[in-house]
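Handout, section 3.2

Students often ask what a structure token actually looks like in practice. Rather than define it abstractly, here is a full record for Glucokinase. The first block is the sequence as you would receive it.
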Amino acid sequence: MRGVTSGHRAPSGRRAIGLDIGGTNIRGAVVADDGTLLAEVSERTPETSDGTTMTKILLGITQQLHAQHPEVVAVGVGAAGIVEWPAGLIRWAPNNSYRDWQVRAELEEATGLPATVDNDANVAALAEARLGRDRYSEMVFLTVGTGVGGGLVLGGVIYRGPSGRGGELGHIIVAPDGPRCGCGNRGCLEAVASGTALTRMGREAAAAEPAGVIARLGREEEDGVVTGHTVTRATELGDPTALDLFTRLGRWLGIGIASLANIFEIEAVVIGGGLVATGDLLLDPARAAYREHAYATEARPVVPVRVGTFGTDAGVVGAGLLGLEHAEDRRVHAVPPERATR
């Protein structure tokens, strides 16, 4: 486990522990109500990510942070998968092995702190809508990384549906005859506009051009295989095949954005996630495809597509804010920090 690191500012106001469960890392942070991260802990996500294993990791992270900041008043969690709201029960996740995981109940029992649990993209959307450089009451948030997640902010609040299972924006169908998604369906936005999609397309390109730049760079990778990172490296060398793959990836993302913007009257589309680091390489074709497929542009504005404020911190910041927003609703008997794990 990585040691605790402290932030540079010490704002006033309430503080919570935010936990962001990702496919690669589990991050925890003490989050102030202005979004400042005061301390952080992270650990690699285990390959066997069942509920029992994950609870032990979350409690270990929480114990470290609570011991350093005993003033925290709540815990918020963002996790991939279908989260039953407000019960804090994670029913299912496409890329993790936890099922029917009673996250909220287990955290509250062990820590004595009120806990709130939501989908990871929802909490990231909350951070961007509440504390981003532009504040929005009506917003679509898409996180483009290994997969595609999404959150809807409607009327100033996260849209979850009656039981928390709504808002699966990464699984709108944009290419029904397209590749199979990790969820089992074909042609989801995630299947054609994610880091996983870029890796798949890169490997197909390398197989078609064994002497090409992508194939050569793939052989230089640590595991000797092409990844999305390989394709990105190839674009930096001006490889036309790699540039074309990003154009295709961005176009699919733009088609998904247009579909969502045509349904909802929103103020902006905010993009987060690791692939945003590629900047205009991804966003230029996405914006072009969005404009191409936008509905009734003479009567409805084509809203801006903007990069998120918090980058990869959006999940942990939003989880902390979620905990603070619902702390009073979830107040339970306090347990001293040294008893935060069993």
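Discussion prompt for tutorial groups: The mean pLDDT is 90. How would you have guessed this from the sequence alone?
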